[in-house]
């Protein structure tokens, strides 16, 4: 009787990553085989650095959801068949932040600076902050009013930053910046009334 050893395959541990991340994966194959191939389900779920390397990378092509990565051993000698192991990869959506288009604003009375941003993906709320010295009517509202400060006016511009709240999972908050350029309204004085 001739005995053959069945392959022993370990695809590693389950993982949770952000949709814009690349995951380092490391599997082991021993016993009746030492080589193998990686695959993903669904088949369009992402790409491997090299499907034939036990230690390689995986980059997801979906923005959220779950994927299965499979490591399948090569067919060993003898009657034993190939063996596979799987890991579950959870893809977490990143926050997508848009602070809006840059603006030009005239500094004059009763002319509020209205700003409006959007946050989608892994978060839906956020906070405005300024790199100047002005203030927001409501910094926690995506659509709000910015009141320029004296330094903003002197510098004739300011950058306003919209920062998302921290998404669930391993992803971090994201931010986007808009710039406002200020223009001073002309001051006109025609003089005093007169009688001639």
Weakly predicted, low-confidence segments: none
> End-to-end span in angstroms?
130 Å
Which strand-content bin applies to the residues?
over 45%
Pairing-aware structural class of the strands and helices?
Answer: mainly beta
How many beta-strand segments? 18
Order of helices and strands: EEEEEEEEEEEEEEEEHEE
Give the helix tally: 1
Strand order of the largest sheet: 2-9-8-5
Overall pLDDT metric: 94
Q: Helicity level, as a percent range?
A: under 10%
As a whole number of angstroms, the C-alpha radius of gyration is 29 Å
Features of this protein?
196 residues; four-stranded mixed sheet; 1 helix; 48% strand
Topology record:
Blueprint: E1 8-10, E2 15-18, E3 23-26, E4 28-30, E5 36-41, E6 46-48, E7 55-60, E8 65-73, E9 84-92, E10 95-98, E11 103-107, E12 113-116, E13 118-121, E14 126-130, E15 135-136, E16 143-147, H1 150-155, E17 157-164, E18 175-184
Parallel strand pairs: 2-9, 11-18
Antiparallel strand pairs: 1-4, 3-7, 5-8, 6-7, 8-9, 10-13, 12-16, 14-17, 15-16, 17-18
């Amino acid at each position: 009787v001739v005995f053959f050893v069945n392959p022993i395959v370990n695809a590693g541990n389950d993982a949770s990553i952000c949709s814009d991340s690349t995951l380092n994966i490391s599997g082991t194959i021993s016993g009746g085989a030492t080589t193998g191939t990686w695959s993903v389900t669904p088949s369009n779920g992402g790409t491997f650095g090299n499907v034939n390397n036990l230690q390689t990378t995986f980059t997801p092509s979906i923005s959220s959801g779950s994927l299965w990565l499979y490591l399948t051993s090569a067919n060993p000698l003898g009657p034993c068949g190939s063996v596979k192991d799987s890991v579950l990869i959870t893809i977490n959506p990143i926050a997508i932040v848009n602070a809006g288009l840059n603006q030009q604003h005239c500094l004059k009375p009763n002319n509020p600076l209205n700003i409006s941003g959007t946050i989608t993906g892994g978060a839906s709320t956020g906070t405005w902050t300024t790199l100047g010295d002005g203030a927001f009517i409501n910094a926690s509202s995506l659509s709000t009013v910015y009141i320029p400060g004296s330094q903003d006016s002197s510098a004739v511009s300011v950058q306003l930053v919209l920062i998302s709240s921290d998404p669930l999972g391993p992803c971090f908050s994201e931010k986007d910046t808009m710039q406002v350029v200020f223009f001073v309204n002309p001051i006109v004085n025609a003089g005093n009334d007169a009688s001639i």
